[in-house]
Amino acid sequence: MLQNIREGIQGPWAIAIVALIVVSFVFTGVGSYISSNNSTAVALVNGEEIQEQTLETAYQNERARLEGQFGDAINQLFASENYINQFRGDILERLINDELMSQKAESLGLRVSDEQIKETIAQMPEFQLAGRFDNDTYRTTLLRAGYTPTEFAEFMRVQMTRQQLENALRGTGFSLQHQVDRVLTLQEQTRSGQSLEVDITEYQASITLEESDIQSYYENNIASYDTQEQVKLAYVTLSVADMMPTVEVSAEEVEQYYQDNIGVYTSEEQRRIAHILFETLDGEEAARARAEEVLAKLNQGEDFAALAEEYSDDIISAEIGGDLDILNPGDYSPEFEDAAFALSEVNAFTGIIETEFGLHIIKLTELAPAVVTPFAEVAPAIRNDLMTDRATEEFFAIQQEMDRLAFEEIESLDAVSKVANRPIIETDFFQAGQLPAGVNYPQVADVAFSSELIDEGVNSQLLELSSELVMVARVAEHKPQRTRSLDEVRASIESELKVEKAQEQALAYAQDIQSAMYDNQDLSELLAEHSLTWTQHTGLKRTSAELAKPVVDAMFELDVLQGGNTSVITLPSGNIAIVKLNAVNVDVDLSDEALSEAAKQRIANTQGQQTYQNFIDALRANAEVKLVAK
Question: CA 328 to CA 363: how far, in whole Å?
């Protein structure tokens, strides 16, 4: 089994795990996974801690993924404290399972090679530019997070080792040929039959209702006639965009800004560098000895790229001759950059440079001079920036006045509207959790149904909806929660009762037809009562869309044997239908390799997932898991 597990890492799964790992990495860096000195444990798994920061990171990452997939719609769920607690609980359960799998993988002696880690990192889209691995992007991301390539590689090793075991378990599913044939036979099976539909509207016109029926229905369903509290908001908004048409910038001001900030429009000289890294994890003396050996070889004229590939502890850049791409100020430590920027000629290299990450020998591989962008190319952008700056100044000045007037003239928005030069807008009535688009912000939701706005009838304080948008709101009208009277809902009750009674009569009629069919009676007179005729269906598939889904479902639930070949069902429209199965048709080419292979894969995937879940359940049953109360 161990051999099968190790072989699994060579397959395409290695690409799939990239997404799993990078989702966590790109949001917060690997620090939350590797270092947890200042964190608090939320769970103990066989004595190993799961840190609070790890849980928070996983929670934020999964929430961000859902928000990216579903947009603002998901925010309504996260507005619920109960949902958040449940969501966090599910994330913690997943982290516990991951820790158990990692422990098991380690106990089995599973390993991931340096070469496999390199290959996986190189395929991460977050470290690529134009579809290719970019070492500068890779190292910049790591260094900004405060971690060395070795530490990140170790993080990857833990994740990938666990994934070996997970994929091996999921890959244990298999299928026998008779299972595949049975699945395909059921899947590709078609059915022939007939149906007829009883229209309940024919019964409704003749139905009379007793007052006692209406009263009883109202009392039995009174909770459904409760109305939710509703408000109609009046509001005034102000944005930076609103201020843009009111500001002006002269050509002279644009020119002056360009001259005053010429450095902004001057590209710094571009230096491309390479390095050879000697990490000091095994002691600085040994690392320095290796560095001096390589420096001597360089001084003797040996090729820098070849030496980097042979000696460098930077496992990614080593494969490309130590290349780190373009050097930008702030990308690396001061010691590293001072040495790199001191090189004045292409192909020159430094001596041994010491940084917190180890010892380096740095080479200048390319040098391009600084370039000044012409004024004409940047003038439109400068004008827009200056206008935005002025509009923002006006925006902040006016919003302060809006805030003051909202408080001083608390019973009206007129003064706020006047100072902002913006109209007062009114919404339609809405209930909590269903805010209209114009006011659908958490800040508005927090105050819209507050006693301050409803009972006291005052303006809200200035609501900062974003850095460029503010609002002042008030409740224009309020409808409290109440139970609608019988007179208000009488018409709908009568309609619902008539539908119910019509369905009862239609159902009884359909069941009479079904009974007659069981007894092999002539149906002509029964069908003639409502001018019904059978509709024939041939070659129906489980996915057929030409009929209502309940009809198709019923057709595939029936048996061709007499007594089990008919069904009476209620359609989504409320009408009643009779469905009769006449024949089951099996016409599938079991030799179709593509069809057979797809079925095999589905069966194997299902079994593999169940095996994985059973394995997790077994680990949990034999593990000591303790949740740390807060």
Answer: 15
- Residues whose CB falls within 8 Å of the CB of residue 175, separated by 6 or more in sequence, listed in order: 599, 600, 603, 604, 607
Please state, in angstroms and rounded to a whole number, the distance separating the CA atoms of residues 493 and 499: 10
User: What's the confidence (pLDDT) of residue 147?
Assistant: 64
Q: What is the pLDDT of residue 503?
A: 95
SS3 label, residue 627: strand
Neighbours of 197 (CB within 10 A): 18
Tokens of 237: 């908004």
Are 349 and 167 a contacting pair, CB within 8 Å? Answer: no
Kind of pairing, strands 266-267 and 371-372? antiparallel
Burial 469-497 (b: 16+ CB within 10 A, else e): bbbbbbbbeeeeeeeeeeeebeeebeeeb
- Kindly state the DSSP code that residue 292 receives in the 8-state scheme: H
Contact (CB, 8 A) for 156 and 505:
no
Distance CA 604, CA 174 (A): 5
Rg (CA), the chain: 36
The identity of residue 55, as a single letter, is L
Determine the pLDDT at residue 66.
85
CB atoms within 10 A of CB 293: 12
| Averaged pLDDT, groups of 10, the chain, 630 residues long | 36 38 41 51 93 86 82 72 88 93 91 86 82 78 69 86 89 84 84 95 91 94 90 96 93 94 86 93 90 95 94 88 86 90 94 92 92 92 94 96 95 96 96 91 93 95 94 96 92 94 95 92 92 94 90 92 88 95 86 83 88 92 87
3-state helix, strand, coil in the chain (%, to 5): 55, 20, 30
H helices of 449-592, in order, are 451-454, 486-518, 524-528, 549-557
Spatial contact of 326 and 134, defined as CB atoms under 8 Å apart: no
Residues 136-164 have pLDDT tens digits of 778 777 776 566 777 788 888 888 999 88
- Helix 149-170 and helix 593-621, axial crossing angle in degrees, nearest 10: 110
Tokens at 26, concatenated: 């790109």
What is the reported pLDDT for 232?
97
Residue with tokens 């002025």: 390
Q: Coil, strand, or helix at residue 210? A: coil
**Cα separation, 577 vs 513, whole angstroms:** 11
Instruction: DSSP for 71-133, please give it.
Output: TTHHHHHHT-HHHHHHHHHHHHHHHHHHHHHHHHHHHTT----HHHHHHHHHT-GGGEETTEE
Give the Cα separation of 133 and 349 in Å (integer): 25
Contact 375, 258 (CB under 8 A): yes
